[in-house]
UniProtKB/TrEMBL annotation:
<dbReference type="InterPro" id="IPR022526">
    <property type="entry name" value="F420_Rv3093c"/>
</dbReference>
<dbReference type="InterPro" id="IPR011251">
    <property type="entry name" value="Luciferase-like_dom"/>
</dbReference>
<protein>
    <submittedName>
        <fullName>Oxidoreductase</fullName>
    </submittedName>
</protein>
<dbReference type="GO" id="GO:0016705">
    <property type="term" value="F:oxidoreductase activity, acting on paired donors, with incorporation or reduction of molecular oxygen"/>
</dbReference>
<dbReference type="InterPro" id="IPR050564">
    <property type="entry name" value="F420-G6PD/mer"/>
</dbReference>
<dbReference type="Pfam" id="PF00296">
    <property type="entry name" value="Bac_luciferase"/>
</dbReference>
<keyword id="KW-0560">Oxidoreductase</keyword>
<feature type="domain" description="Luciferase-like">
    <location>
        <begin position="12"/>
        <end position="294"/>
    </location>
</feature>
<dbReference type="InterPro" id="IPR036661">
    <property type="entry name" value="Luciferase-like_sf"/>
</dbReference>
């Protein structure tokens, strides 16, 4: 099982410079790769560059970048710029994001997201493998001056059409806050889609919230990260089956985040994550591996554990 680290995943109340500290620690502890998510606070390519300059070895993946707010050339140029400035491979992850982010933050319509993801993935893959001297786009008088970024193309997927896009174009497919049972089902879908596309299946990774020997603040942070999934199809049934039906019903009725956090019992943090003592977490990692996951991207809780140090030290590569 490969284990990487997510320096920043989703918006919360952490200090704005916490992602750099997480990444520096991950690099020092020997993790191979750091993911740099995008949100209202940080542009992922800018932050990935800052992290690359503050670290020594770790590979960088920017995103998932919302495909409804960036064109494919801009995405590929961003990755190439990160690689050129940092002097190491840079990959990019694509996703559809949410209506709340695309329309509420960027003011752009989130139309036909599955189609936008497929079109973007196909175009970005081509741009990532361009070479200096070629036109930046077909027919353009401008020529490529930067080498290709050298990292992988990742597609975040959950539904059938997004999985088909990952199977057809990606080097890696990304899941987010999933249970081992969901991994098993989604891996089967990925294998079937790759066979249909005539490609070797991409590797399968998942962002998973993680907290080893969590303090109450750490557990609360993990619960906050999953509260937004309570109404998402495919997740709500899983949470209901796990005994969280009350929280699911409150979310469906429009309850605010604080109400949902009060309704979620502490053990809910472990339904789609790695939370507990070290033996519990290692057993959970084994369950994800058995279900078919190739890579866990740790999203370390930093509340009560600055930079996620307790968790990252406990799970660092051998």
């Amino acid at each position: 099982m490969d284990i990487s680290v997510v320096a920043v995943g989703r918006e919360d109340d952490s200090p704005v410079d916490e992602p750099v500290r997480v990444a520096v620690l991950a690099d020092r502890l020997g993790y191979r790769e750091v993911w740099v998510g995008e949100g209202p606070t940080w542009d992922s390519f800018v932050l990935a560059t800052a992290i690359g300059l503050a670290t020594e070895r770790v590979e960088l993946t920017a995103g998932p970048v919302p495909v409804s707010v960036r064109d494919p050339f801009t995405i590929a140029r961003g990755a190439a710029g990160v690689a050129a400035v940092t002097g190491r491979p840079a990959g990019v992850a694509l996703g559809t994001s949410s209506k709340r982010v695309v329309e509420g933050v960027h003011g752009r319509p989130r139309l036909r997201p599955a189609t936008a993801l497929e079109e973007s993935a196909a175009a970005v893959r081509g741009f990532l493998h361009g070479v200096p001297g070629e036109p930046v786009v077909p027919g353009s008088p401008f020529r490529r001056r930067l080498p290709p970024p050298g990292g992988r193309l990742t597609v975040a997927a959950f539904g059938d059409r997004a999985i088909a896009t990952a199977a057809a174009h990606a080097d890696r497919m990304l899941l987010d806050v999933v249970s081992p049972e969901q991994v098993r089902v989604l891996r089967a879908s990925l294998l079937a889609a790759a066979e249909k596309a005539g490609r070797t299946p991409p590797t399968l990774a998942a962002w998973l919230p993680a907290a080893v020997d969590p303090k109450p603040e750490s557990r609360a942070q993990v619960l906050g990260s999953i509260a937004g999934y309570l109404t998402v199809p495919g997740y709500r049934d899983m949470f209901t089956a796990s005994g969280l039906g009350e929280a699911v019903e409150l979310a469906a009725a429009g309850a605010d985040r604080d109400t949902l956090l009060r309704a979620l019992p502490p053990e809910a943090a472990g339904v789609v994550g790695l939370v507990g003592d070290l033996d519990t977490v290692r057993s959970r990692i084994d369950a994800y591996a058995e279900a078919g996951l190739d890579e866990i991207a740790l999203v370390p809780a930093t509340a009560g554990d600055p930079a996620g140090e307790r968790t990252l030290r406990a799970l660092r590569p051998a």
